[in-house]
Amino acid sequence: MARNNRRKFLQYASIAPLSAVLPANGSTNDFPDKPIKIVVGFSAGGTTDALPRLFATQMSRILGQTIVVENKPGAAGNIATAQVVRSAPDGYTLLASSIGQITVSPHTMNMSVDPQRDLEHISMFGEGDQFLTINKQVPAATIEEFISLVKSKPHTLFYGDSGAGGNMHLYLEYFRMLAGIDIDAVHFKGGSQIMPDLISNRVQLSLLSNIVMNSHAKDGSLRPILLYGKKRDPHYPDVPTVREAGLPDLETASNWFGLHAPKGTPRSVIDKIHRALVQSLKTKEVQEGLVTLGITAGGNTPEAFSQRIARESETFKKVAELTKIRPGSI
Fold first, then answer.
1. For all residues of the chain together, what is the average pLDDT?
2. What stretch of H or E contains 58?
3. Do the beta carbons of residue 162 and residue 190 sit within 8 Å?
4. CB-based burial label for 247 (10 Å; 0-12, 13-18, 19+)
5. pTM of full prediction above 0.85
6. Domain 130-252 belongs to what topology?
7. Could you tell me where the beta strands, DSSP code E, fall in the chain?
8. Transmembrane segments in this chain: where (predicted)?
């Protein structure tokens, strides 16, 4: 897909209303018999926002009911998490999460809820790699040159993350620790809010998804220097993976997105939402959108998703201890 189409897609996904109401397929007493709300914990413009808007359009058609996406940014997505946890367990209020809200924040922030325990985990709906990206004015062309630069000028460069205690904060601190460099953090309320400061060089480094980075990398304003992934991206063949750069421990820093409901939501409702999500991920519209966003489709079962969350929560508990990011420390 052409680069300008990628940019237009994200702009459209950020503002497109999800309000088309179709006739219900069955009794009005069956779920769903009223609009469903999907809460997103970050501001419009990033992948965490664009993905649920993409599949919710198709889920609305499949379920025969309006689906509205609502942004509740703040606290690395945890304001949204708490809102959904405290909602009625009836399937009408769902959470579209990033990995950080579910497996990272419980170990890095003081939270009033426990996402792993207090939510029903429906399915992972997508997963993608991320690029460690620097401003063009930074005098470094490779990850090795960047590390050498920061070592020669400690505490003079800054990285931007999407919220203190979130997965991006943890991943960037883990990089800082493994690379042995002193670079300071600036915390934003979502990935899209980082971009003006990164492009203007007020912060020099961040961790960006394909869709957020692409147009700026192509016009030369930003430079990807490291891929948080296991395989090189064909669009950026010269950018090494973390393992190739001698930082294999960063492979744990994955970037998935999931759908969740309040604890106690009936299994029949969970199953109906899951089926609609899986069907939506198979549609041409969603598959094309996923390619544009640089995301691989998910669709695992609630059981498999819950098991993955449990495993990764243990991993990030250890990483949080290593990086000394813990509740009350940020």
1. 89
2. helix 47-63
3. yes
4. buried
5. no
6. D-Maltodextrin-Binding Protein; domain 2 (3.40.190)
7. 36-40, 67-71, 93-98, 119-127, 130-135, 158-161, 184-187, 205-209, 222-228, 256-262, 296-297
8. none
